[in-house]
Amino acid sequence: MINSLFVFDSSHACYDPRFIGGDGIVFYFHGRSNEHFNLISESNIQINACFIGLRPEGRTRDYTWIQALGLKFGNHNFTIEATKTQKWEDSVDHLKLSYDGTDLHIPEGHTSEWNSTKGDVQAERTSTTNSLTVTIPDIAEISINMFSVSEENSKIHIIIFRKMTALHI
Questions:
Q1: pLDDT tens digit sequence for 126-168
Q2: Which segments of the chain are extended strands (E)?
Q3: C-alpha 127: how far from chain center
Q4: d(CA 6, CA 77)
Q5: Helix or strand or coil: residue 149?
Q6: Could you tell me the fold of the domain covering 6-54+61-165?
Q7: CA separation for the pair 162, 109 (Å, rounded)
Q8: Within 10 A of 68 (CB to CB), how many other CB atoms are there?
Q9: Contact criterion met (CB below 8 Å) for 29 and 21
Q10: Is 54 helix (H, G, I), strand (E, B) or coil?
Q11: 32-87 per-position pLDDT tens digit
């Protein structure tokens, strides 16, 4: 049974994440740079995010982006991070993944994948580098694309969640 469905809409490539509920209502999540936030908390899944960002001169709040995402489900943890780099190159993979505290490596290449031994989570690349879909069967499917925010702040790299589909809560 689906109690609610969330979709991350990244039509804006910067500023705070925007969520669209299954009912079509839009709400914004205003974070603070270098802080961790709980985005979703339900009985079968908890989704947390680490925000990075900057405060433009004359502004009273940070512009923030999601740098890392942590998923807690059952007795398991799955994390997705964008690694920091001095210069962004699309051909270089910036994904850092872990499952229950153990670093994971998914070979570069479209449709390369990793599956947990119990089959409770799958990560599949959707391009050669920097994009993947994470599936927790019957709970969530999350599509992730990472890219540099802009030339001016190319030291800050983000995870933009293009879509979060079929989040069954």
A1: 999 988 999 999 888 888 888 776 545 434 444 444 444 333 3
A2: 6-8, 18-21, 26-28, 35-41, 46-54, 63-73, 76-82, 95-99, 102-104, 113-115, 122-125, 131-136, 140-148, 157-165
A3: 16
A4: 20
A5: coil
A6: Protein Transport Mog1p; Chain A (3.40.1000)
A7: 20
A8: 18
A9: no
A10: strand
A11: 777 788 878 888 899 888 877 777 778 787 777 778 889 999 999 999 998 887 77
